Amino acid sequence: MTAPVLLSGHYDYRLVVLSVFIAVLAAYAALDLAARVTTARGHARLIWLCGGAIAMGVGIWAMHYIGMEAFYLPVRVMYDWPTVLLSLIAAILAAGVALFTVSRPTMARARMIVGGIFMGSGIAAMHYIGMEAMRLPAMCMYSPWLVGLSIALAIAISFVALQLTFALRDHLAPWSLHKIGSALIMGLAIPIMHYVGMAAAGFMPLSSMNGGLAHAIDVSSFNTLSIAIVAVLILGIAFLTSFVDRRFSLQALRLKTSQSQLQTIFDNMTEGILVLDREGKTVLFNKAAVRLISIPEGPEGYRKVVEQFEAFLPNGEPLPPAEWPTARALRGEFVQNLEILFRRRSNGETGAREISTAPATEANGEASQIIVTYRDVTEHRQIDEARNRLAAIVESSEDAIIGKSDTGVVTSWNQGAEKLFGYAATEMIGRSIKHLLPGDRQHEEEEILSQIRQGKSVDHFETVRVRKNGGLVHVSLTISPIRDAKGKIIGASKIVRNITGRKQMERQLQQSQKMEAIGQLTGGIAHDFNNLLGVIVGNLDLLERLIAGSEVALKRVQTAQKAAARGADLTRRLLAFCSSVELKPAPTELHQSVRNMIEMARALGPDIKIATHLDESMPLVLVDAGGLENALLNLAVNSRDAMPAGGTITITTKLSTFEESYPPVRTGEVTAGCYACISVSDTGCGMSKETLSRVFEPFFTTKPHGRGTGLGLAMVYGFVKQSGGTVSIYSEPGLGTTLTFYLPLAENISQSLPAIVPEVLPAKRSGKVLVVDDELDLLEIATIYLDEMGYTTYRAQDGVSALEVLEQQGDIDLIVTDIVMPGGMNGVELAQRARQLLPKVKLIYCSGFPADAMTERKLPVLDGRLLNKPYQRAAFGAMVSAAMEG
Predict the structure, then answer these.
(1) Please, are residues 886 and 840 in contact by the beta-carbon 8 Å criterion?
(2) Residue 178 pLDDT more than 70?
(3) Four-point Cα dihedral 13, 19, 24, 29, nearest 10
(4) How far apart are CA 630 and CA 727, in angstroms?
(5) What are the CA-CA distances from residue 780 to residues 232, 417, 485, 666, 777 (Å)?
(6) How much is the CA Rg of the chain, to the nearest whole Å?
(7) What is the CB neighbour count within 10 angstroms for residue 42?
(8) How many CB atoms lie within 10 A of CB 157?
(9) Dihedral sign, CA of 502, 507, 508, 510?
(10) Is the dihedral of CA 746, 748, 750, 752 positive or negative?
(11) Is 349 exposed, middle or buried (0-12, 13-18, 19+ CB in 10 A)?
(12) CA dist 313 to 134, 290, 349, Å?
């Protein structure tokens, strides 16, 4: 059989290119419209799905018919328009399936395969329905293999197109390389399927037109161009609509994102924000407002807040609701950072809020709303209060509290430091702490800083520091490192405590303990020695009877008996020192005992003069009369021995009151109260400080060998201590000695006696006082007393340095000076020189010698008040106040 002759045709490649171009445009439209369909919601989604399907379907359909028109046959070709319309519907349905598939939230593989099959089948259906619309004098014949290949290609191309579209649907930008590349791939792939399908068709000539011609139409070149233009226009409209919608969507998204961000910021602000209208109704508030003021939902929320809370000003004054910042803002009165304390009425919970109000103005400048800002300052307020309390504690501390850098530069200086060292904060801040160290202790600061840099603390380190006036002060230092937030050591805090008084107390206590220990040792020896003497004396008495006929032996026994008697007297004195002699205290008239002693003391010699200055109002004392007379006689004998060329013994009595702060009271030697004071003063050779520290020790004496036992003052000390009193001694080489002892009164008469000195320190005063004394301890005590009274104090240890202070300062109000001082200038001479510099300066003299005994020492006449050593705080303060008052 002869094979049928088929019509041969050829392609117009211009139309082929046009078809491919429209295919690329349709592919790009598919990618762009997929994003619109995906992001749209509700009716807009359906509109975009339908519109996108039409635009994409028209594009694919136009590519198909332009591709068919690109194939020229040597016969007339017409098209059945209902069939053509059916092919267009198939293309639109295929596009709709594709857009619906890629707009789903997720794309499972099964959904992708099903969507690809439906889309590919739709495109294939469009193609072959379009081929059936052809009316020509020929019969169309198909190659089954090529038809199957074209359908498989349609499905595969659809599968790839769905994947690319789904992957790029979230790209909001109208143009991108990914999108253009994908459109090219899809735009080239779809025509391939078309032209494979065209290759599957063969046309065998007939004598007449194939198919019905009732609805057949000719398609001219103009019609082909029209189809291309319409397709491009439809796709252009789709692009333009997508572009405009994208712009609006982006703007809406940005607005939504901005609103979301603003809402997030608004809700996460730590400050509570409340917006009210001009009628006081709640318009808007954030979460912080709910937390800070518990505002409920609804326009009446703020009014309910007013009902829940009470408000107070920081000073505790109640704040009525009409004066709350919000109420004032509604009246046009706006505030900034006003602190208010709120208390919840239901449970009493309190908190501090810092409130600011401001108008919310519109474009026309009218304030239609009020913005109220609440900030929780409860913690800050607590921190500030704690910081203020700590600062107040530091400032009011009696101890010096000093801050310094890690190099020793002072950074803070409290009032305690000003009081202790005499420097104001402005004088010390910024200076090295070494300014307070004596020259021989400069190394201490380097050692302290070295420990601080290692993170170690210095606890209760006792040392000496220099005051502004040059005096030394005993201090106890406690120093700790200061660290920053990262733990780095940046400095140190130092607590400095004045222990001068304590040091003095320790020395006095040590002396008391020393004398007690000596007394116990002496008492034990004396008791044993007394027992031995008893055996010796008894046996000597018996031996004396046995040798009555031997004059030589009797003389030896009598010599031994004299030595034993002297030993017994020595033992008695030792027992008196160690308080082992039984005393019989009874109410005794002190002055009668003094007179009895004077009668016995007449045997001291014609060169010894005894002067008395007795307080006739002296009440009875509780003492053993015999022991008292014996003690006075011992003192008189000691004074006579100190005046080999003769001199005066002055006996003075007066009442004295011991305060709680008096050292013997604080050490427990005596109790506070009134005592009889007896002073025995001589004009003898006096004693050095070294000698004074040992005068009450048994067997200690400065007399030549054989002239004294060293038990006289020890016996007096023991008698006074056993009587419940205390002893003090004052001496100056070349000027004599004064021994003063205090005895308890027979009854407590402090209630009936006039106040000798005020018990309370005088009120704080102002002025400058210079203290001059060669004894450092007394200098420190006087300085402390004056600092407590509020005076500015300067110190000197001799007359020359005192004059230097006067010349430097020039405005000293009062000089408190010892009379007897080293350096060739006594206190009276200093006073005379001082008056030449400062004619109006006031004076107080200090001396351990009683006033009545001063004239016996050939000292110049005093032209000011005399304060007897040792002085107590109240007596010192009273005399200073009296002198300063004129």
Answers:
(1) no
(2) no
(3) 160
(4) 16
(5) 111, 16, 42, 18, 5
(6) 60
(7) 7
(8) 23
(9) positive
(10) negative
(11) exposed
(12) 95, 22, 16
Burial class (CB in 10 A: 0-12, 13-18, 19+), 820: buried
Mean pLDDT of 871-878: 80
> For residue 130, is pLDDT > 60?
yes
755-766 confidence digits (pLDDT tens): 444 444 445 577
The Cα 448–Cα 472 span in angstroms is 20
As a whole-number percent, the residues of the chain with pLDDT over 70 amount to 72
pTM higher than 0.85, yes or no? no
Exposure letters 771-790 (e unless 16+ CB within 10 A, then b)? bbbbbbbbbbbbbbbbbebe
Tokens of 636: 């008189």
| DSSP states of 835-846 | HHH-TT-EEEEE
3-state secondary structure of 805: helix
**What are 686-739's pLDDT values in tens digits?**
877 777 777 666 655 665 554 555 555 777 777 778 778 888 888 888 788 888
Furthest C-alpha separation in the chain: 206
CB 586 within 8 Å of CB 747 = no
Over residues 473-502, the mean pLDDT reads 82
Confidence band of 752 (pLDDT split at 50, 70, 90): very low
Q: What is the residue whose two structure tokens read 């002239």? A: 707
The tokens of 422 are what?
């005499």
Q: Does residue 580 carry a pLDDT above 50?
A: no
Say which range, 136-145, 167-176, 669-678, 820-829, has the weakest mean pLDDT: 167-176
Listed in order, strand segments (DSSP E) in 23-150 are 71-72, 78-80, 134-135, 138-142
Q: Average pLDDT in the 605-634 region?
A: 82
From first CA to last CA, the distance across the chain in angstroms is 161
Give the helix, strand, coil percentages of the chain, each rounded to 5.
Answer: 50, 20, 30
Q: Alpha-carbon distance 746 to 628, whole Å?
A: 14
- Which residue in 68, 384, 88 sits closest to 224, CA to CA? 68
Parallel, antiparallel or unpaired: strands 71-72 and 78-80? unpaired
**3-state secondary structure (DSSP) of residue 489:** strand
Whether the pLDDT of residue 545 is over 70: the answer is: no
Type of residue at 478: T
200: number of Cβ within 10 Å: 22
Average pLDDT, the chain: 75
At residue 319, the 3 state secondary structure works out as strand
SS3 265: helix
Q: Which two tokens stand for residue 859?
A: 């000292």
Total residues found in the chain within this entry: 886
Measured distance CA(501)–CA(503) in Å, rounded: 5
* Rounded CA separation 612/670 (Å): 27
Strands, E assignment, 551-693 = 586-588, 608-613, 621-623, 647-658, 673-682
pLDDT, residue 181, reads 59
* Structure-block tokens of residue 347: 């449970």
pLDDT per position as a tens digit, 366-392: 777 888 888 888 777 777 777 777 667
